[in-house]
TrEMBL record:
Keywords: Membrane, Repeat, Transmembrane, Transmembrane helix, Transport. It is a multi-pass membrane protein. Coiled coil: none annotated. The keyword Methyltransferase does not apply. SUPFAM superfamilies: TrkA C-terminal domain-like. It holds the Pfam family TrkA_C. This is SLC13 family permease. It comes from Chelativorans petroleitrophicus.
């Protein structure tokens, strides 16, 4: 009966991995189907073995209470808090300046720095540090985050392979071999680890970006960040932060990313270039800017900083230049055919009074003249930029006069909370890096702190929760539990050893590495390391090879969790922000596994002297 459970477990895992890799089915569907299959298998055909124990529903569902899963989900909420407050905007600007105009150089600088740091720090908090930096950099420089986040995860894994404290996998192996009377020093794996890391880095930085798809996609990402410009209007009222800004070389650098196209002063119109002009009270500025530039201006100066069309309404409710609350969102909406707003000027359309939102700007496919925002006549197909509370935008979705674009609503950053968010984030990293608290405790506490301090609203935190990761991890741990407790993992190891019997030490070590690297992408890296360390030592003793060669092979192969997102925690961390699918890891990660395997197969025998 045990053989039946083993082979059925193999079959379910194989079908699941193929379904994941095909990208033909939603990840949630495959994860639930896999979980249901295991529950049915062990529910209808109970398994109990004297050496392995019994498998019940409680064992299979235990993955949903796994500390690693709770850590990842909590850190996603923390990352959303950093993004919502622009806390990582300054580090992104610094790295962007160092990288110059090349976003590839900026990415390489960032991920290589992360790899170096991960050699002496656990790579999970290192990835947590750099994810928001890279996301902010992507927003500023106009590239898709998918081009940077998987390289970040992979290079920190490679960096963690260079010292014994670089990852928990290395430390686990060192702990297991200590029971055999073998000590592993801090730098014992450094030289082969550096060789593997360098070989992997060439692929990750030189080839992998061409394999990764533009998740999001980059075209859409560029358009939302920098490609699409809206026309807006600013009226310089008393106390406005733009008062006194002077032109230089015909431009206004003090306005940041807002570009004036027309200044109306006491009935007179001034056009670029603006020579010797100082902005003064009563001026009306017609500007063009990207959506992100509008968001930045709103976060710094409040709703009244942009549009004068409905400024009176905002003046009645308070100072329009006061910072906006975390509930304030901006969104894009289209004027549909038949809308009652079509044919009316923005001033007369009454969008603010009818729908309770703030009119920020307008964009249309064909060129518009330099016209004040309030005098632009709306046409079907125009895209308008609006701002308002989450509730107001939700109510607007019921209107037939404006069509809110799906997924376009985004909260305005809260820079006044950036210091708080960064402090919370730093506390998580410090307490986790120096083992003051378990990372699951510090990350959940940090997520709670983000909400209670107002860096995030509860709905924003809920949106950061990634159901794909939740279901993927839970179902994958169920598969790993079935594979281990039925003896399926042990059977694979024993079969591999028997097949390699009689081969040279170099071939045996290469084959052993390949088996461990394969299983680490199905089981967790730590489970694979613990399972294969004693097997590797036994093989080394049986064939007369140096035990350290097989210990190193176990460490490096168990760290080769590149081909699936479930093998390593950092892969799960970048999966959501990078908009990756399971198939993305298979396509981009499998060549890296092969490169590391081939490199060690060639270098290892020479280095260890056989």
């Amino acid at each position: 009966m045990a053989d039946f459970h083993v082979w059925m477990t193999y079959a379910i895992i194989l079908v699941t991995v193929v379904a994941y890799a095909s990208d033909r089915f939603a990840l949630e569907q495959v994860a639930l189907a896999s979980l249901a299959a295991f529950l049915l298998l062990f529910g209808i055909f109970p398994f109990e073995h004297p050496g392995h124990g019994a498998i019940h529903a409680e064992n299979l569902l235990a993955g949903f209470a796994n500390p690693a899963l709770a850590t990842v989900l909590a850190l996603l909420i923390v990352g959303q808090g950093l993004f919502a407050t622009d806390a990582m905007d300054a580090p992104a600007r610094i790295i962007g300046r160092l990288g110059g105009r090349s976003h590839w150089r900026a990415i390489a600088l960032t991920v290589l720095t992360a790899a170096a740091v991960s050699s002496v720090l656990n790579n999970t908090p290192v990835v947590v540090i750099f994810i928001p930096v890279l996301v902010a950099m992507a927003a500023k420089q106009g590239f898709a985050p998918s081009k940077a986040l998987m390289p970040l995860s992979f290079l920190t894994i490679l960096g963690g392979m260079t010292t014994i404290i670089g990852s928990s996998t290395n430390l686990l192996v060192a702990g297991v071999v200590a029971n055999f009377g073998i000590g592993v020093g801090f730098f014992d794996i450094t030289i082969p680890g550096l060789v593997l890391a360098l070989a992997g880095a060439v692929y990750v930085l030189g080839i992998m970006p061409h394999i990764l798809r533009d998740a999001g996609s980059e075209k859409d990402f560029r358009q939302s960040v920098s490609g699409t410009h809206f026309i807006g209007e600013i009226r310089l009222t008393p106390g406005h932060p733009f008062l006194g800004i002077e032109s230089r070389s015909g431009l206004f650098p003090g306005l940041g990313e807002l570009t004036p196209k027309l200044i109306i002063r006491r009935g007179m119109s001034f056009y670029p270039p603006f020579d010797n002009v100082t902005l003064s009270e009563g001026d009306r500025l017609v500007i063009t800017a990207t959506r992100r530039a509008f968001m930045k201006a709103l976060s710094q100066g409040g709703a009244g900083i942009i549009s004068s069309v409905d400024s009176e309404r905002f003046m009645k409710t308070g100072d329009p230049t006061q910072p906006l609350g975390p509930d304030y969102h901006i969104a894009e909406a289209i004027i549909p055919p038949g809308s009652r707003h079509a044919g009316r000027t923005i001033r007369n359309a009454g969008i603010d009074t009818t729908h309770g939102v703030h009119m920020l700007g307008v964009q249309r496919k064909h060129r518009m003249g330099r016209t004040p925002l309030s005098e632009i006549r709306l046409e079907p197909g125009d895209t308008i930029l609006i701002g308002g509370s989450d509730r107001a935008l939700e109510e607007l979705r019921q209107s037939h006069d404006l069509l809110v674009l799906e997924w376009s609503a985004e909260p305005v950053p809260q820079p006044r909370k950036a210091g708080i968010a960064f402090t919370i984030f730093a506390a998580i990293v410090v307490t986790a890096a120096f083992d003051i608290l378990p990372i699951v405790a510090s990350s959940i506490t940090g997520a709670f702190a983000m909400i209670v301090t107002g860096c995030l609203t509860l709905p924003q935190a809920a949106r950061a929760f990634d159901r794909q990761i939740f279901l993927l991890v839970g179902s994958s741990i169920a598969a790993a539990t079935a594979l281990e407790q039925t003896g399926g993992a042990q059977l694979i190891a024993e079969t591999a050893v028997s097949l390699l019997n009689g081969q040279s030490a170099a071939v045996v070590m290469s084959g052993f590495f390949a088996v461990v690297a394969l299983l680490t992408n199905v089981l967790s890296n730590n489970a694979t390391a613990v399972l294969f360390t004693p097997i590797g030592i036994g093989i080394a003793q049986a064939i007369g090879a140096p035990p350290m060669a097989f210990i190193a092979a176990t460490i490096f192969a168990a760290n080769c969790s590149f081909a699936t997102p479930i093998g390593y925690q950092t892969n799960l961390l970048v999966m959501g922000p990078g908009h990756y699918s399971f198939g993305d890891f298979v396509r981009a990660g499998t060549p890296l596994v092969i490169i590391i395997w081939l490199t060690f197969s060639l270098f290892g025998p020479w280095y260890y002297g056989f």
